[in-house]
């Protein structure tokens, strides 16, 4: 089993990375592999709303979004990590997720997902809500911890002193591993994934 982690911070080994590493340590203890991918500076802008990805199965912008598609297919779980920028996820993270989830959410359905944020002081719950919306949109079971999955600190060294935050990260990793194993056991026992109705697209114009 493998969990893919996306780090949306401009600091590759900063606060968000430190939090994700703590999750990874708990996953490893449960026998689950993980990979942290730093995405900052690797996107070529936001979604064009061109709709081409529905036909192509990939984005028309050939950057890290398309590189992540096979990794989404192969992973068993996904964790989205971002620092808090103006009480929201980083702009680079949002640009990537808009395109990645719109084009490829089918590869994530029924795979456990979680969000992690880091902040100096505030804006954490608002940022979690932004990231968790992508997880909900893809019909991924949302993995929780013993508290909202966040760490506090202005530097990675600060985060290492956030004992509660680090404990939350470890519990998140254990919960993620448990849920993945439960899903695998259910499928092995013959429990099928939920049936999916054809999509009904409507608006509020009558």
Overall geometry:
globular
Strand order of the largest sheet: 2-1-3-4-5
Low-pLDDT stretches are none
User: Which range does the strand content fall in?
Assistant: 5-15%
How many helical elements? Answer: 7
Topology pattern, helix = H, strand = E: EHEHHEHEHEHH
Terminal CA distance? 48 Å
Largest sheet: 5 strands, parallel
**Alpha-beta content class:** alpha/beta
The whole-number mean of residue pLDDT values reads: 95
According to DSSP, the number of beta strands is: 5
Radius of gyration: 17 Å
How much helicity do the residues have?
40-55%
Can you tell me about this structure?
- With 206 residues, the chain is α/β, with parallel strands linked by helices.
- 43% of the residues lie in helices and 14% in strands.
- The chain has helices spanning 15-29, 53-56, 64-74, 91-104, 124-137, 156-159, 163-188, and strands spanning 2-7, 33-38, 77-83, 113-119, 150-152.
- A five-stranded parallel β-sheet has the order 2-1-3-4-5, sandwiched between helices.
- The termini are far apart.
In short:
The chain has 206 residues and is an alpha/beta fold. The protein has helices spanning 15-29, 53-56, 64-74, 91-104, 124-137, 156-159, 163-188; strands at 2-7, 33-38, 77-83, 113-119, 150-152.
Draw up the topology in text.
Elements: E1 2-7, H1 15-29, E2 33-38, H2 53-56, H3 64-74, E3 77-83, H4 91-104, E4 113-119, H5 124-137, E5 150-152, H6 156-159, H7 163-188
Helix pairs in contact: 1-7, 3-4
Brief descriptors of the model:
206 residues, alpha/beta, five-stranded parallel β-sheet, 5 strands, 43% helix
């Amino acid at each position: 089993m493998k969990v893919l982690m996306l780090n949306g911070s401009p600091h590759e080994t900063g606060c968000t990375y430190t939090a994700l590493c703590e999750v990874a340590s708990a996953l490893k203890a449960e026998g689950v592999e993980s990979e942290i991918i730093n995405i900052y500076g690797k996107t070529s802008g936001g979604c064009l709303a061109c709709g081409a990805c529905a036909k192509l199965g990939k984005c028309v912008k050939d950057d890290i979004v398309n590189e992540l598609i096979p990794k989404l297919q192969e992973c068993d779980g996904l964790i989205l990590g971002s620092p808090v920028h103006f009480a929201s996820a980083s702009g680079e993270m949002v640009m990537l997720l808009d395109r990645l989830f719109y084009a490829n959410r089918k590869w994530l359905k029924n795979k456990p997902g979680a969000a992690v944020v880091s902040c100096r002081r505030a804006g954490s719950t608002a940022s979690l809500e932004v990231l968790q919306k992508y997880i909900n949109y893809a019909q991924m079971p949302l993995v929780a911890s013993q508290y909202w999955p966040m760490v506090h600190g202005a530097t990675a060294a600060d985060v290492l002193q956030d004992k509660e935050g680090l404990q939350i990260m470890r519990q998140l990793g254990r919960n993620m591993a448990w849920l993945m194993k439960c899903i695998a056991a259910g499928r092995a026992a013959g429990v099928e994934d939920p049936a999916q109705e054809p999509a009904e697209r409507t608006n509020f114009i009558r």
